[in-house]
TrEMBL record, chain A:
The keyword Transmembrane helix applies. PROSITE patterns: ABC_TM1 (PS50928). It comes from Myceligenerans pegani. Belongs to the binding-protein-dependent transport system permease family. This is Sugar ABC transporter permease. Residues 69-279 form the ABC transmembrane type-1 domain. It comes from the Bacteria. It is found in: Cell membrane. Keywords: Cell membrane, Membrane, Transmembrane, Transmembrane helix, Transport.
From TrEMBL, chain B:
It is a multi-pass membrane protein. The keyword Manganese does not apply. This is Carbohydrate ABC transporter permease. Its main location: membrane. It comes from Myceligenerans pegani. Gene3D superfamilies: MetI-like (1.10.3720.10). PROSITE patterns: ABC_TM1. Residues 1-24 are annotated as: Disordered.
Length: 288, 298
């Protein structure tokens, strides 16, 4: 065995695990999406090759474009706008807050992020339920709140995901803001720039790397959110809050169309893969 | 928790915490009061859903709405503390989390060593692949994973699920471990090599003892992820006696959740407690709340 090969031996268990359980599902996903695998029945054991049948089905199925759109709305509203803007705002506010307020605020925001996802989902469910905390508060000021989970399910899951995930952005931006040289903002202040101008022309350009990193990471995390939506609305009413992970799950396990669900999963792998490549290329992290 | 970071940051930039920050306005005093008030309002909004879990668990007549319990009781906790309902699912969760944590740490340390110490031709590509793996929404593709597990005859198998969870957290773990290992100076191993130690002996006797906090952080990171994971065991484990707390708590919610909110909240709290404790532990080990979030920052 050559020296190079001998040195690579410790990599073998990692390569084996990743090949079987990461690459495996990805390859299987591409393969399975071309078959008519079902959950039970004759085609469960011996699926047939149906070529692009599942993908043709996706395009013909009104639920798929709807779900794709809901996914875009969910990712854009809760991650790209909600978590990022609120996370940056919180990071900025934390810097000018007094110590007790700062520790209470960061602890409370981080707590929502540290909770196991199923507990966070229950908490959000209780908050937005027709008899939940939000409507009790609205009743306190004389407003009869709607059944949020039923009449505005997307709004409820978007707000819940902002509540759940903002801590991550807040922490990333806290670190980024701490790296902004104070002389820069002070110089801008002397030149007569107001707060908004300093933010737009000094702070944001300096932390742009953190912004792009955080945008990509929150996008990818939000793309795979399942539990929060599944517990809160079950993707419903109907398919009104079925994002792609929910739709794939429902098609495969509720309607027993595993091949069809796999095609949806393949679309998600491709979307996630494209985002990952953009992220890695844009960031060009130091791998040496 | 996270406040320690901002304080450390304040020290680094040579400011007293609370001194004029880049985002404060022209009238520091008024702006600062406003900032504190806005922050408190946001905090209150963030607190309400979480606080419901805590208060409902102590409330004899808990509803879905947040409210101070009229009679504080521990009856909700004692009602759920039965082997089938709580202890076995928590034990299963522990087996899943500890198993995948242990496997991930061993495999990640082994893999990180050559990646950190040698310049290999394919090391670069391997790291890029690992980084790509950290980004892939693998839990979003549980449907193909399910059919793969059917083919491999691993469905409803605890070891199969443990290995799958270990594999999905492996990219992040390798990335973190390599970064921790890079900060251990090579000169110490060179001394071991000249005394005839093999690379693996050097790793075990010299490098590992020096990066114990790093290994602990990686282990806790994987453990916490596995403990909180609902979707993976929900799809891969079918028999109730094998399911971890995340799944059995969901079944409980479906069966009794619409009546026994107090018990649901108590169960949630009991199940969340280890994660909260481990999170505090990590912030102590690494000296900042960033260990888990910051590690992801390329």
């Amino acid at each position: 065995m050559s020296r190079g090969a001998a040195r690579a031996v410790p990599l073998a268990p990692a390569v084996a695990l990743l090949a079987l359980f990461m690459l495996g599902p990805v390859v299987w996903s591409f393969y399975g999406s071309f078959t008519n695998t079902a959950l039970t029945g004759p085609t469960a054991a011996n699926p047939e090759w149906i070529g692009l049948g599942n993908y043709a089905g996706l395009l013909a199925d009104p639920d798929f474009p709807k779900s794709l759109w809901l996914t875009v709305v969910f990712v854009f509203a809760s991650a790209v706008v909600g978590q990022n803007v609120l996370g940056l705002a919180l990071a900025g506010l934390l810097r000018s807050a007094v110590r007790p307020v700062r520790s209470i605020a960061s602890t409370v925001v981080v707590a929502a992020w540290v909770l196991p996802e199923i507990v966070a989902a229950f908490a959000a469910y209780a908050f937005f339920h027709a008899d939940g905390t939000l409507n009790a508060m609205l009743a306190g000021i004389g407003v009869t709140g709607p059944d949020w989970l039923y009449s505005t399910p997307m709004l409820a899951v978007v707000l819940a995901n902002i509540w759940r995930g903002t801590a991550f952005s807040m922490m990333v931006y806290s670190a980024a803001l701490a790296e902004v040289p104070p002389d820069l903002t002070e110089a801008a202040q002397l030149d007569g720039a107001n707060g908004a101008q300093r933010l737009a022309w000094v702070t944001l350009p300096v932390i742009r790397r953190s912004i792009s990193t955080n945008l990509m990471l929150t996008t990818l995390q939000t793309l795979s959110v399942f539990t929060l939506i599944y517990v809160m609305t079950g993707g419903g009413p109907g398919t009104d809050s079925s994002t792609l992970p929910i739709l794939a799950y429902q098609e495969a396990f509720k309607f027993a169309q595993v091949g069809y669900g796999t095609a949806i999963a393949t679309v998600m792998i491709v979307v996630g893969g494209v985002f990952s490549v953009i992220y890695i290329r844009a960031l060009r992290p130091e791998v040496d | 928790m996270a406040a320690t970071t901002t304080e450390a940051a304040a020290k680094r930039t040579g400011r007293a915490p609370g001194a004029a920050a880049p985002l404060t306005g022209p009238r520091p005093r008024a702006t600062k009061v406003a900032a504190n008030l806005v922050l408190l309002v946001i905090t209150l909004c963030f607190l309400l859903p979480t606080a419901w879990v805590v208060f409902a668990s102590l409330d004899a007549e808990a509803t879905l709405s947040f409210g101070l319990p009229e009679a504080v009781t521990t009856a909700n906790f004692s009602a759920i503390m039965t082997p089938e309902l709580t202890w076995r699912p928590l034990w299963n969760a522990f087996v899943l989390s500890f198993g995948s944590g242990a496997i991930t740490v061993v495999v990640a340390v082994l893999a990180a060593y050559p990646l950190s110490r040698y310049r290999m031709r394919f090391g670069r590509y391997f790291l890029y692949t690992v980084l790509f793996g950290t980004c892939l929404p693998i839990t979003a593709v549980m449907v193909p994973v399910y059919s793969l597990f059917v083919q491999l005859n691993l469905l409803d198998s605890l070891p199969g699920t443990v290995f799958f969870m270990a594999a999905t957290s492996l990219p992040m773990a390798i990335w973190m471990t390599k970064n921790f290992m890079d900060s251990v100076p090579v000169s110490l191993e060179e001394a071991a090599w000249t005394e005839g130690a093999s690379a693996m002996q050097a790793l075990r006797r010299v490098v590992l003892p020096l990066m114990r906090p790093g290994v602990a952080v990686v282990f806790i990171f994987v453990f916490v992820q596995a403990w909180g994971n609902f979707f993976v065991p929900f799809v891969l484990l079918l028999s109730p006696e094998k399911q971890p707390a995340a799944v059995s708590i969901f079944a409980f919610f479906g069966q009794y959740g619409s009546v026994a909110y107090g018990q649901l909240a108590a169960y949630s709290l009991l199940y969340a407690a280890p994660v909260l404790g481990l999170y505090v532990l990590v912030t102590r080990i690494s000296g900042s709340a960033f260990a888990l979030a910051g590690a992801v920052k390329g």
